[in-house]
Amino acid sequence: MSILKPLGYQDMHAGYSGPLDEQQFLVNMVNHLRKHPKWWDMAIIIAYDDSDGLYDHQPPLVV
C-alpha cells in the first residue's frame, strides 16, 4: 500500500488549491501507474478528508 499526498497548490485544500490543479495531480499519477507492469493488479482508492468548499448547494433530504 502507498499513500500519495501532493504538495502545495495541488494538495486539495481550500484557499490555495484549485480543482483543476488537484485533478491534474490525479491524472498524472494514474497515467504514470498505468505504465507499470503490475497495473492490472492495482487498486486505486481516492479519499478526500474535506470537500474543499466544492459541495452540493442543496441541503440533503431529511427523512
Features:
about 60 residues; mainly alpha; 1 helix; about 25% helix; about 0% strand; hydrolase activity, acting on ester bonds; hydrolase; virulence; Alkaline_phosphatase_core_sf; U2168ag
Describe this structure in a few short sentences.
The chain has 63 residues and is mostly helical. It has one helix spanning 19-34. It has a domain at 8-41.
Could you characterize what this model shows?
The protein is mainly α and 63 residues long. It has 1 helix and no strands. The chain has one helix spanning 19-34. The protein is extended. The model has no long low-confidence stretch (mean pLDDT 83).
Largest sheet: none
- What Rg is obtained from the alpha carbons, in whole angstroms? 15 Å
* Overall average pLDDT: 83
Q: Specify the overall morphology.
A: extended
Multimerization status: single chain
Low-confidence stretches are none
What percent strand? under 5%
Structural class: mainly alpha
Pattern of helices and strands: H
- Which range best describes the helical content: under 10%, 10-25%, 25-40%, 40-55%, 55-70% or over 70%? 25-40%
Chain-wise SSE layout:
Layout (H helix, E strand, L loop, with lengths): L18 H16 L29
